[in-house]
Every structure is written in structure tokens, then in C-alpha cells.
Amino acid sequence: MKKERRLGSRIFMGLIFLFLYAPILLMIVFSFNDGNSNVVWQGFSLRWYEQLFHDRAIIQSVYTTLLVSALATVIATIAGTFAAVGFYSMRRRTRSMLLNVNNIPMMNADIVTGVSLCMLFVAVFGLWNEFAVNYRVIINLFGTKYRITFPELSLGFGTMLIAHITFNIPYVILSVGPKLRQMDHNLVDAARDLGCTWMRAFFKVILPEIKTGIVSGALIAFTMSVDDFVISYFTAGSSVSTLAMEIYSMARKKVTPEINAVSTLLFLVVLFLLVAVNLREARQAKAQARRNYGTVHHGAGSRART
Amino acid sequence: MKTSRSLLAAPYVLWMALFVVAPIVVVVIYAFTSAGVTAAEVGDFTWSNFTGMGIYLPIFTRSFQLALIATVICLLIGYPLAYAMAKEGPGFQRTATVLIMLPMWVNFLLRTYAWMAILENNGLLNQFFQSVGLIDLVNHILGTDMAYFRMIRTQGAVVLGMVYNYLPFMVLPIYSVIIKLDHSLLEAARDLGADSTGVFRRVIFPLSLPGILSGVTMVFVPSVSTFAISQLLGGGTHMLLGNLIELQFLGGAYSPHLGSAIALVMMVIVVICMWIMNRFGEGEEQAVVL
Fold first, then answer.
1. How confident is the model at residue A301 (pLDDT cuts 50, 70, 90)?
2. Which site in A209, A246, B7, B151 is 20 to 30 Å from B126, CA atoms measured?
């Protein structure tokens, strides 16, 4: 009876995984279709991939996505790490209050974060532009008159970058914070007593302790940035677009196998990364287990590794 | 020394003031004022943005209904799945977790788009139904004359999109709570005479409540605020709150004041959700950090 139940639960899991993967697999299959249909198979071809690589808008949007994600990740990781160190040397009350504010972008629905940032930018730029249009500074320099006009500001890459940094930092703090809490704070004091400057103590003592937290924070931040659609959609204005925005506008207009090609490529990249990370982890876990039980067979170990 | 170190947080505190707190203040100001003379100005204080929301009541109820249905379905599928996963061996568990997470890494627009091709009137699912004779059978029984089942541009399609996109958010927190359950508790319950349903009902289920609550919020909040899923799978005919907000900012009906008011309402909804979760979670740590 126990076996039957186990079989039942496996069938159930299989069905759910089928539900999760069937649409993605169909997309992959039809990305190689030689017709512009998502339904009728008309033979194998790579034409949609070819078209994809000649699509200026898509290539540009991939570039924008990677650029904004990379910049936001670097800035958010550095700022978030410093902020976390700062937070954890504050009094408990102040810290928990600041952490609550820090949690707002993570808690809020994406659309609310996007819309509120959009409102802020529009309101501030509105005031600024009114000023910029009406005022000019005229400088008389060596007899020549220079007229300085203020540039008008509008939504674009800069505002999108600010938005990405804003929603990334909380994730960095969230993954660095626990490491700081686990750390023995006497270590820092010891380093200071032994003559370390503050900066040296930070780099020599704190940083090595929280390194894993920083790395995982940066990874989460990067994934969040690449995956984001809603917040970018509201803060990017009409001049720049990320890959997700491009896909949204394409899917809204018509069904095209070009999107299948995009998703196939993205899926393969993700699959590769995830499998690589997991294989490594599995191997490490296995090695750890072997070490723990003292049943290391060198031959078997090296065979497993090849 | 301690104070000097806490100064490290100063830039970020300033950043939060500018880009986390100030935007909310702007939204609140816009929500309670009327349109000004120029774009940069705001008008007088007014409640009209909120009182005028009455005509959108159907959209509010529809959003809540669909998000609630999607959340319940996710829970009904997600809990047994997480439970079944937790009962398997470690190798199976690792693979299953990766399989659950993998679709999450594919942008949700692409996942939603995949369903468009399947649910179309002449899409794959309808072709399949046609070929197995299901459509003819239904026509025969009901005496109708359908060439296809209408699936896309229905509320059902929107719910399907929500379930498909957010199911992992339900499974993972529940799974991570169940997997950490103390096995001696289960043994104790069994020793004290509980049968397997008793163990589940009185020990496992109550202890996995934090995971359930975390999953429910993680599915409900994005579901109630989505605009892309309803746009792509609902064909724009079944407006949700998200679509309504989008319309006020980027769509034809440009009205940031009304849009802010709706966004504020949504913020309150999220706060209420979090409050409920914290209350029932009884100070348990957030079940999972993805």
C-alpha cells in the first residue's frame, strides 16, 4: 500500500512538471519551425534565429538589459554592503526602523514601486524643466558671453538605473545582514586593538566573513534586474527599452515565432547556469559526505569527478 | 567607533529617503489632490479620486476574485506537491527543486506568451481537442455548433496564467518549511497514538502554516496587481487593477491623480496582507528567502 501511494505521488509530481514544462518545450520546438505559425509544423529551419540576430531593436534591448543590470548590481552590491555594515552597528531600535523602510520595495507590488518612482521623477522633472526653460545663466568670460542653458530632463536610462538600484539594495542587505549577525564582533575590536585602522579592519576582518553573503546578494540582485519588467516599464520612458519590454510590446501586437527563438536562447542560458551551479553543489555535498564518513575511495572519487 | 561605522549607512539612508519614502509621499499627495493648471502643479485637496473610484468597483472585485481563485488553486496544487517532494530522497529533492525553480528564471512574459499560442482559438489545445473529437462530442451533447473552445481572452485564461507563473512561489516556501520539520515531533505524535492523518492534521499542517502564509502572500500580491498577464491572456477585455493603474499613467486615460489613488489603495492591501501574515506567523522568521 505504501508503494502505491508513492507511485501516486510521483504521478502527481510528473503531471505538475508536465504542466510547468510543456509550454516551454512547445515554445522551443516551434522556434525551429519553418513557417510563421505557432501551431502547424512546417519543417525545420533556423530562420527565426536569423531574423532575431538581425533585429536591431532586440539586440539593442539585450544590450540595455545587460548594461542596466550590471551597473545596478555593482552599485547596489557596494552600497548595500556598506549600508548593512552600518545598520548592524546601530542601536537595535534605529536599525529595525531602517530595515522596515528597506523592506518597502520588496513588499510592495512591483506596479506600486514602479508607479511611485515614475510619479517622483515626473513631478521633480516637471518642476526642474519649468525652471530650465525659463532661466538662463549668462556668464561674461574674457569678453565673450557664454549662455548656459539647463538641459530638460525626461525619463530614460538614468531613471531606470535609479529604480533598479533602489529595488536591488534591499536584497543585498537581506543576504549580507545574517552574515553580519553571525559574525563575532570581538574580532573587529581585536583587530582594532592590534593596531588596524578602521579601513584595514573592514577589509581584513569583516569582508572575508561576509563574502558569501555579498556574492549571493549580488547574484540575486542581477537576476532581479534581468527579470524585471514592471518597474522598468514605468521608469524607462519611451526612449529606451529592456528585453522584457520589447517582448511585451511584440507579444501584444502579434504572435511571432521570433519570441520563441528569444525564449529558447534565454532558457538554454538559464538551464546551463543552473545545472552548472547545482552539479558543483552536488559534488561538494558528496565530497563533504565522503569526508565525514571516512569512506573515501580515491579511485571512485576521481571517477565521479571526470 | 561604533557611531563612525554606522555612518556607512548614511548614503543609503539618504537614498531611501529620496527613492523609497519620497515616491510614496508624492503618490499620497497626488492621490488627495485634483489636477493643477500646469503639469508640474497639483490642484486643491480633494477626496474625489477615492469617491470617484466607485465606477471601477467591478474591476476591484474582479481583481480580487481572480487573484483569490489563483491563490487557492496554487495552494491546492502547491501544498501536496511540496509535501510529496519533501518525502523523497535527497537526490530527488534537489532535482525537483531545480525543476520548480527553473521556469522562474525564464521571464514571466515569455511564460505567459507560451500559453497564448496554446490557448488560441486555432491553437494547439484546440487542435488537440479537435483531433480527439472532443469538440464534436461537446457539440453533439449540447447541441451547439462550436468550431473551437473559447479559451484565450477569458477570465479562466487569466487565472491559468497566474497559477502557471506563481505556482513556484507557493511550492518553495511550503517545501522549505516542511523539510525543516523536526522528525522527532512526528515520531512523538505517532508514539502517542496518532494515525497518519492525525499526524498531518495536528502536527505537520499547523507547523507548515508559516510557509503557507508566505506562499499565499507571494502569490496573491503579484496576482492582484498584474497587468501583463491580463493584457496578454485576457486580451485587454478583462481589466484588472493593474491594467487600470497602467492606463492612468501610460495609457490613453492619462490621470496620475486617479492612478495614484488606486496605487495607494493597492499599497494598503499589501500592508494588510503583511499584517495578517505577521500576526498568524507569530514572529516566525520569514519562511523563505528566494
1. very low
2. A246
Distances (CA, A) of B79 to A8, A288, B205, B211, B212: 15, 31, 10, 10, 8
Query: What is the rounded distance in angstroms from the CA atom of residue A164 to the CA atom of residue A183?
Result: 29
Contact A23/B115, CB-based, under 8 Å? yes
Is B196 in contact with B205 (CB distance < 8 Å)? no
Residue A129 amino acid letter: N
Of the candidates B233, B256, B234, the one whose C-alpha atom is nearest the C-alpha of residue B245 is B256
Q: Could you say which residues from 89 to 148 on chain B have a Cβ atom under 8 Å away from some Cβ of chain A?
A: 94, 96, 98-103, 105-118, 120, 122-124, 127
What is the Cα gyration radius of chain A?
Answer: 26
* Contact call for residues B226 and B112 (beta carbons, < 8 A): no
CB contact under 8 A, B109 and A12: no
Chain A contacts in chain B segment 246-265 (CB below 8 A):
246, 249-250, 256, 259-260, 263
* Biggest CA pair distance of chain A: 99
Q: Which of B259, B172, B176, B251 is nearest to B219 (CA)?
A: B172
User: What is this structure's pTM?
Assistant: 0.87
* Cross-chain Cβ contact B225/A282 below 8 Å: no
Local confidence band at B39 (pLDDT 50, 70, 90 cut-offs): low
Taking Cα atoms as reference points, which of B67, B116, B108, B110 lies closest to residue B234?
A: B116
Q: What is the pLDDT of residues A15-46, one digit of tens each?
A: 999 999 999 999 899 899 888 877 788 889 99
- Asked if B113's CB is within 8 angstroms of A263's CB, the reply is yes
- B235 lies within 8 A of chain A by CB: no
Give, to the nearest 10 degrees, the angle between helix B124-131 and helix B108-119. Answer: 30
Chain A's closest residue to B82, CA to CA, is A13
Give contacts of A 4-23 with B, CB under 8 A: 6, 9-10, 12-13, 16-17, 19-21, 23
Amino acid, res. B224: V
Residue of B nearest to A124 (CA): B40
DSSP string, B153-202: TSHHHHHHHHHHHHHHHHHHHHHHHHHTS-HHHHHHHHHTT--HHHHIII
Identify the band that residue B285 occupies on the pLDDT scale cut at 50, 70 and 90.
very low
- Chain A segment 29-88 residues within 8 A of B by beta carbon are 30, 38-39, 79-80, 82-87
* DSSP summary character for residue A204: I
Please compute the mean of the pLDDT values over residues A128-135 and round it to a whole number. Answer: 84
**SS3 for A89?**
coil
| Chain B hits for A113, Cβ within 8 Å | 23
Q: What is the largest CA-CA distance in chain B?
A: 83
Residue B101: φ, ψ to 5°: -80, -30
Q: Does residue B233 contact residue B155 with C-beta atoms inside 8 Å?
A: no
Closest of A9, A7, A6, A17 to residue B80, by C-alpha: A9
